[in-house]
């Protein structure tokens, strides 16, 4: 995957492999950036299980702009930025191990692009968060508030 930066829909209903030549990408199982989301960095993905896919369907994708500066995010235990607030700037392989809870009901992405993962150690469903306010978990496309890990969306991890 290289330029163009946006591919509105794919012509095939199945995707057997992907090669990312540069940058970071989000691929989606449905058109118009809907459905399951998968974060891909430079490299080869010979089958959908290598990108942690639930199936081999890819219908839309886009490149993730690379943030040259810092990453910063605030997470909240309740909707509409209520309850306990935590601010951080680094990856969290286990939200529960660090903060003793794993339900995030709202967040404010102040700098950079971030990924929420359903399970610890960057496993399960992925959710891309751009800079902005997310008043409830459905705003980032989740069906519940459970988050196991959080990672900065960068092309090359530290």
TrEMBL record:
Domain (Beta/gamma crystallin 'Greek key'): give its ranges.
Answer: 23-65, 71-111, 112-154
**What terms describe the molecular function in GO for this protein?**
structural constituent of eye lens
Q: Which Pfam families match?
A: Crystall (PF00030)
Per UniProt, the keywords (alphabetical) are: Eye lens protein, Repeat
| Protein family membership | Belongs to the beta/gamma-crystallin family.
Purpose of the protein: Crystallins are the dominant structural components of the vertebrate eye lens.
Report what the protein is called.
Crystallin, gamma MX, like 1
